Every structure is written in C-alpha cells, then in structure tokens.
C-alpha cells in the first residue's frame, strides 16, 4: 500500500514539474498578446507552472505538434477544434478567449459579396474558413475557393473577386494596401447569424487528464495575462513587438496596435459586455449544427465533449 502511495505521489510531482509547451496556431503577433504578457510579467512562474512558448514553423503546424506530442497546448478556433474531435482526437478547452467571430469577406470594386455567385474567393490554406463554406452552400453562392498561405497579395493584385479576412489581421493589411472598406463590400459573419466563437486554448484529453492541476494553473495565469493586456495596451504592445522581432516577423507596429485593439474588443461578450473567458454552449451548438448540415462534420460535437 505504501509503495503504491509513493508511486502515485512521485507521478504527481513529475507532472507538476513538467514544462507545458504551448504552441499558438500562428506566428508571433498581437493575437497571442496575453500569453506573452503572462510569460514576461512572471504570471506563469507565480502560478507555479513552467511554460515554454514555441510558435509553429512553415513545415510543422500547431495541430501537428499537438498530435505528435511535441507540444501540450495550442490555440484553435472552435470550428477547427470540432473537426479534430470529429476526426477522433478528443480535445479539452481549458480557456476561451474569443467571444465573437472575427471573419469577414471583402469584395473587390465595391461589390456586395452576396451578389457574386461563383466568385473566386480567397481562403486560408491552413483552415479557418468553415463558416464561410457553410454560408456559401446555404445561400447558394457556389464560391470557387482559392487557397492562400498568409497574405492578401492575390486579392490586391486583382486575381480574386473577394477574399476572407480576419477583422484583426488581413482586414487591416487590406486597409494599409489602400483597399476601400464600406458596409457594401464587407460582409461580417458575426452580424449575419454566424457569430461563433473562435480562439480558445486546447489540450488533448489524454494530456489534460494527467495534468489537470497544471492545466488549471496555466489557464488562470493566461487569463491574468489577457486581463493585464486589456488594462495596459501600450506596454503590452511593447511586449508583442519583442516577440515579433525575436521571431523575425515581417509586420509593423501600427498593424500590431490595430490587431491588439481588435482582439481585445472581440473578447467582450455582446450580451454581458464582459470578458467571460468561457466557451458558450449555445455557440458550440450553433457551430455544430451548421457544420453537420453542410457535411463538414459526420455528427454533432457537443459542449460536454469539449468541456473539462
């Protein structure tokens, strides 16, 4: 009996001493400011959790790192997470940062995206466009999807009729490129029945089950980082630029400032007007139903499957 207790105690100690490797789903930018703050300001250390932030590479995505146990936590959009669970990899949402959908469609030459049936529309090659595909099918738009890696060059060059964009990222790249944005040529998914949450922090259920306390501490310290960022945006931007420079990311301070402001806005729930940091069951249900109806999921993925 004593030997069994000793072995259990040793396994708990090892779990507590392990470093959580956290891989955001994209390169260094203000989208992940709260985690940078938590690291730089010592919130992870104060919480008694060891965290190492490793960004994905061009050849290794965040999700692949999670699949191969090369990282322990990553950020995923809700629709992405549901596809992965449906594919047979159980995930647990330990922290939800996004409370609103950021995706938009921007059309060229001031046209309304809903009038452009059969249009050539840019979509990210790494995913993120599930709701747009649902909308295109539901509204019989029959968009021709053209995949792009990470920028808006195809659209700016006139090779596309429209492009998907995130309101905190590509949207501002297009503004900086001189594209005029109006209520006519910008379709915001959150305003048309597709307000589905995006970024949350996920672990595989297997890893989470073995490291619940560490996961809880990591989530709480990350939340503290985001709350600090909301109260100290200028200092947070300085921290973001440290990570941008360290990772040699081609961006600029103006774009990162706009991104940070928009990311923080998207964290405020429309109904409660608060940063709730929680996955909403109604949004899980909406996303699941939309994706099942449009054959993007083989079955409905429930809130309970994603919850701790």
SSE topology:
Layout: H1 2-17, E1 19-23, H2 33-40, H3 43-46, E2 50-53, H4 62-67, E3 73-77, H5 78-86, E4 91-96, E5 103-107, E6 120-124, H6 130-138, E7 144-148, H7 153-156, E8 162-166, H8 170-176, E9 186-188, E10 199-204, H9 205-210, H10 212-231, H11 233-246, H12 253-266, H13 281-293, H14 303-306
Parallel strand pairs: 1-2, 1-3, 6-7, 6-8
Antiparallel strand pairs: 3-10, 4-10, 5-8, 5-9
Helix pairs in contact: 2-10, 2-11, 11-12
Q: What would your notes on this structure say?
A:
The chain is an alpha/beta fold and 308 residues long. Helices cover 44% and strands 16% of the residues. The chain has helices at 2-17, 33-40, 43-46, 62-67, 78-86, 130-138, 153-156, 170-176, 205-210, 212-231, 233-246, 253-266, 281-293, 303-306, and strands spanning 19-23, 50-53, 73-77, 91-96, 103-107, 120-124, 144-148, 162-166, 186-188, 199-204. A 5-stranded mixed sheet has the order 2-1-3-10-4. A 5-stranded mixed sheet has the order 7-6-8-5-9, with no helix packed on it. β6, α6 and β7 form a beta-alpha-beta unit. The longest helix has 20 residues, at 212-231. The two termini are 30 Å apart. Mean pLDDT is 91; it is low at 1-15.
């Amino acid at each position: 009996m004593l030997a069994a207790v000793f072995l259990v105690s040793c396994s708990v100690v090892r779990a507590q001493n392990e470093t959580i490797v956290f891989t955001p789903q994209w390169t260094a930018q203000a989208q992940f400011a709260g985690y940078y703050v938590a690291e730089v300001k010592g919130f992870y250390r104060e919480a008694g959790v060891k965290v190492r932030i490793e960004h994905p590479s061009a050849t290794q995505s965040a999700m692949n790192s999670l699949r191969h146990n090369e990282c322990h936590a990553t950020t995923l959009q809700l629709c992405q997470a549901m596809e992965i669970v449906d594919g047979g990899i159980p995930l647990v949402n330990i922290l939800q940062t996004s409370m609103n959908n950021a995706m938009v469609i921007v059309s060229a030459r001031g046209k309304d995206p809903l009038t452009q049936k059969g249009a050539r529309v840019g979509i990210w090659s790494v995913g993120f466009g599930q709701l747009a595909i649902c909308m295109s099918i539901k509204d019989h738009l029959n968009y021709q999807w053209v995949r792009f890696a990470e920028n808006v060059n195809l659209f700016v060059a006139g090779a596309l009729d429209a492009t998907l964009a995130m309101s905190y990222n590509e949207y501002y790249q297009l503004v900086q490129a001189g594209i005029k944005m109006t209520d006519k040529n910008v379709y915001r998914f959150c305003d048309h029945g597709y307000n589905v949450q995006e970024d949350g922090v996920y672990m595989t259920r297997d890893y989470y089950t073995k490291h619940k306390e560490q996961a809880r501490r990591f989530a709480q310290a990350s939340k503290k980082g985001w709350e600090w960022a909301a109260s100290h945006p200028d200092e947070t931007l300085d921290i973001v630029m440290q990570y941008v420079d360290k990772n040699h990311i081609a961006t600029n301070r103006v774009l990162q400032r706009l991104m940070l402001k928009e990311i923080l806005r998207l964290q405020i729930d429309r109904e409660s007007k608060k940063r709730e940091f929680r996955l909403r069951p109604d949004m899980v249900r909406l996303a699941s139903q939309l994706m099942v109806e449009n054959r993007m999921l083989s079955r409905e993925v429930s809130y309970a499957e994603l919850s701790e």
